[in-house]
Design brief:
By secondary structure, the protein is of the alpha/beta class. It has three domains: 157 residues, Adenylosuccinate Synthetase, subunit A, domain 1 (Adenylosuccinate Synthetase, Chain A, domain 1), CATH 3.40.440.10; 94 residues, Adenylosuccinate Synthetase, subunit A, domain 2; 158 residues, Alpha-Beta Complex (Adenylosuccinate Synthetase, Chain A, domain 3), CATH 3.90.170. Helix content is 32%, strand content 20%. It contains twelve helices and 20 strands. Helix 3 crosses helix 4. The longest helix is centred in the middle third of the chain and has 22 residues. The radius of gyration is 21 Å and the shape is globular. Bound molecules: guanosine-5'-diphosphate, 6-O-phosphoryl inosine monophosphate (IMO) and magnesium ion (MG). The site of guanosine-5'-diphosphate (GDP) has 22 residues, from helix 1 and strand 3.
Length: 427
Amino acid sequence: MSVVAVIGGQWGDEGKGKIIDLLSERANMVARFSGGSNAGHTVLNPYGEFRMHLVPSGIFHPEVVCIIGNGVVLDPKTLLEELESLHSRGVETKNLYISDRAHLVMPYHLLLDSLEEEARGGGALGTTRKGIGPAFVDKVQRLGIRAGELLDKENFLERLHFVLEQKNLILTRVYGAKPLSLEEVYQDYCQYGERLRPFIRETEVMVEEAAQRGDRVLLEGSQGTMLDIDFGTYPYVTSCSAIVGGSCPGLGLSPIRIDRIIGVFKAYTTRVGAGPMPTELFDETGELIRERAHEYGATTGRPRRCGWFDGVACRLSSQLNGFTGIALTRLDILDVFPSLKICTGYKVDGETITRFPSSIAFLERCQPLWEEVEGGECDISGARQFDDLPPQARSYVRRLEEIIGCPVDLISVGPRREETIMVREII
Ligand code: GDP
Ligand code: IMO
Ligand code: MG
C-alpha cells in the first residue's frame, strides 16, 4: 500500500508514536500534517525513549524522509531543541524537511495561550499552553507568519512590525501584560530562520512526487478525532482538524492518493485537559488504569483522565474517518481485570442514544450504558500472534471490531516495537 494515514481515534495519546515508529521500518516517507508541539508522541526503540513533539516519529529510520507539513504550526525554538536532543542521542535528522508554508508559533502566541486560559477561569480548556490556538487564529485571520518568510529578512521585519504592533496592543490593553520587543523577537526568529534554512522546502511537491512514484508514505496524525475542531467536544477541542480529511490541506495531498486509513484506538479511554468524557471513572478502577499504564501527559505531565472504552464516541470517529483498519493499543493494561466494560450507548432523560451528540451541555447529562464482558486476568504482553491471546481478550477485540465497524490490523501489547501482534499487513 502506498499512502497510509494513521489517525487518533479518541481524545489523543492513543499510541500513534509507537505505531508510526514501528510502521516506518517499511516506509519511505512520514509526514505530519496538523497540530504542533501540543502533540507528544512517545517512541520506545533501540535508541531509547523519546517524546516527539514536532519531528515525525519516522525519524529513527535514517532513510525515511520526514516532513513537517504546511498544516502544522511550528514553534521553531521547540523544533531546534528537539533536533539537538535527537542529535545528542545519536539520531540523524538529515532527511527532515519543513514546509515553507507552515505557520510559525510566535512568542505572543505562547503568552496569549496562557493569558486566555487564565481569563477563562473555571471554564479553562486545559490547553497545553504551547500557543496552538492563537497561532491557528492568526493563520485564519491572515496575520500568520510562515516558515518561508524567515528566509527574506527584510520582508519578515516588515510583517513582524505590523503584526507585533497589534499583538502588543492586545497584550498591554486587554491583559495588562508587558509588550514584546520587536528587536528581540526579530533577532531570535532571524537566528531560527538561519538554522532552519536547510530544512525548508516546498514539501507538497515532495509528498506528491512520492505518492506518484508509489513510495510508501505514512501520514502521522496528531491529537485525536474527538479533539477535532469541527467534530470534537467543542469548545474543549484543539484548534485544527485532527481527522484524516485534514491531511489533504495539511500536506497539499489529493484525497484520491490515500489508500488506507488506520484508526489508532486505546483499548480503554483517556483524556487530558478539560471537557466532557462520558466513560470517565472516578474510582479505584480509573486509578488502577492510570497507575498501571502511567497515564500522564507526554507534553505537560498532567494526569490523564481514564475510563472504559467509549463505543459511541468511537463509532462517530469511524464514520468521520472511514477507517479501513484498527491499530488497537494498550490491550495489555486491561489484562488484570476480571471483567471489562464497554459503553455501547448513552442514557439521557430516560432515553437511549447511540449517536454522539454535538452539544456538550447535552453530553454532560449523558450516562453510559454498559456492556460487561469477561476479562482474561493473565499477562498478555508476550503475545505475538492473535491466537496467543486468551479467549476473553480475543472476544474483547472482536467486540471492538464490531462496534468500530472495521477489522483490527494490529494489536499492541506493550510500548516497544516487538510488543505487537500484526494481524494484517498495513504498509
Ligand atoms: P500518542 O500521542 O498517540 O503517540 O500517544 P502517547 O505517546 O502520548 O501515549 C501513549 C503511551 O502509551 C506512551 O507512553 C507509549 O509508550 C505507550 N504505549 C503505546 N502502546 C502501548 C501498548 O500497547 N502497551 C503499553 N503498555 N503501552 C503502550
Ligand atoms: P497527541 O498528538 C492529548 C488537548 C489538550 C486540551 C485541548 C486543547 O499527543 O495525541 P491545545 O494545546 O491543543 O490548544 O489544547 O487538546 N490536546 C491533546 N490531548 N493528546 C494530544 O496530542 C493533544 N494535543 C492537544 O490537553 O485539552
Ligand atoms: Mg500524546
